[in-house]
Design a protein that fits this description.
It is a single chain. This protein is of the alpha/beta class and 368 residues long. The protein has two domains: 3-182 and 347-367, 3-Layer(aba) Sandwich (Rossmann fold); 196-344, Rossmann fold (3-Layer(aba) Sandwich), CATH 3.40.50. It is built from 14 helices and 13 strands. Strand 4 (93-97), helix 5 and strand 5 form a beta-alpha-beta unit. The radius of gyration is 20 Å and the shape is globular.
Length: 368
């Protein structure tokens, strides 16, 4: 049995990958615990995982603006909390969310074996690390060194949105190794009983979110398809007008709604996009945040021919015309179905657990 600690933050799209990998390790008999924000406690404990909230960050509420995110990612309090947990309960491997730069930096300085868990496209993060290095340098946080020492970097994504995927090397936990694990959402090939459009925008209240939701809802008013809208926690009751006949939920697990979907309309978030594609469902992306990975993911979906992209300010008529065209395109659906089959073959949680077991074994050999 190996001992693991996952260090995470309340980020929405990173929750499912963290839970999926942590549970896969726990189900193999390993000792697994999670350190994160108190708002995450219920979700992780419901998944059967031991959870400890950061003592330094009670009542955390995410500020999605760039300054707020930078402050979070370089928060020395989270690093101090991690070190204190390790002093009380040493582990073989710490699995750290890719954005917690201060935690990665301190673990690298103290020679603790750690892995990085990425929850979006690896090339976006690799390029972004160079820009982040400049921004966080005045705060005394290093970026490049911890990434090159991570053993390994586990990417909860696929190497490409085109099939066949590039050949992957044998699993390795050597420092700096990048391992594409695959999607973390349980997925099956979608078989909708009728044309069904799933609407799912961000769980964060980005500027313009309410207006974007209203344009999307207006676009599907009277659409000859069943429409399911998962509004999420960022909207308050009554902020948008919902057309008659739209099935509305605050939240639904992907594995419940996507097997019956024909098309997903989203904001280009990695979690929802990859989950849809894993089910073989095409995606219409309307990115809400130009500084995030959303535009990059939207471009990748469009380039691979498994979806389309529109500006988030697109009007209802443009959105409606695109939705109707995508629903009618057999070629689009065939490409998405082929990609979905390839994603499902990776079996993301199993592959991530396999390489993290190698990481713990390597730590054990080093300490002998």
């Amino acid at each position: 049995m190996a001992h693991y600690m996952f260090v995470t933050w309340d980020g929405g799209g990173n929750r499912m990958p963290t839970i999926a990998v942590a549970r896969a390790l726990a189900e193999r008999g390993h000792d697994v615990r999670v350190l994160g924000h108190d708002a995450q406690a219920a979700a992780f404990r419901a998944a059967g995982l031991r959870f400890t909230p950061y003592p330094s960050a009670p009542g955390f509420v995410l500020d999605p603006r760039p300054a707020g995110l930078l402050g979070l990612f370089t928060d020395r309090g989270l690093a101090d909390d991690t070190v204190a947990q390790l002093a009380a309960n040493p582990v073989d491997v710490v699995v750290v969310d890719c954005m917690l730069l201060s935690v990665l930096d301190v673990l690298d300085r103290m020679d603790q074996r750690f892995a990085i868990l990425e929850h979006t496209l690896h090339d976006f993060l690799a390029r972004g690390a160079r820009a982040l290095a400049v921004l966080v340098w005045p705060r005394g946080v290093r970026v490049s060194r911890p990434r090159s020492h991570a053993a390994p970097i586990v990417v909860a994504s696929v190497p490409s949105l085109r099939v066949p995927f590039p050949a992957q090397p044998a699993l390795s936990a050597a420092p700096g190794t990048v391992v594409y694990a695959g999607a973390m959402t349980p997925a099956v090939a979608a078989h909708p009983a009728q044309p069904t459009v799933v609407l799912s925008l961000s769980t964060f209240r980005f500027p313009g979110l309410v207006a974007s939701w209203q344009r999307v809802l207006d676009a599907v008013d009277g659409l000859e398809a069943h429409v399911v809208a998962t509004l999420g926690p960022a909207l308050r009751a009554g902020e948008v007008r919902v057309p008659a006949g739209v099935e509305v939920h605050e939240w639904m697990p992907h594995e419940q709604v996507l097997p019956r979907a024909s098309l997903v309309v989203g904001h280009g978030g990695h979690g929802t996009t990859l989950a849809a594609l894993a089910h073989g469902v095409p995606v219409l992306a309307l990115p809400l945040d130009a500084t995030s990975d959303q535009p990059r993911i939207a471009r990748a979906v469009t380039s691979a021919g498994v979806g389309e992209t529109l500006p988030s300010r697109s009007g209802p008529h443009a959105i409606r015309a695109t939705v109707e065209r995508m629903l009618a395109s057999s070629a689009l659906h065939s490409r998405a179905e082929r990609l979905g089959a390839a994603i499902r073959e990776l079996d993301g949680p199993r592959r991530a657990a396999d390489v993290l077991e190698l990481s713990a074994s390597a730590r054990g050999r080093r300490d002998q």
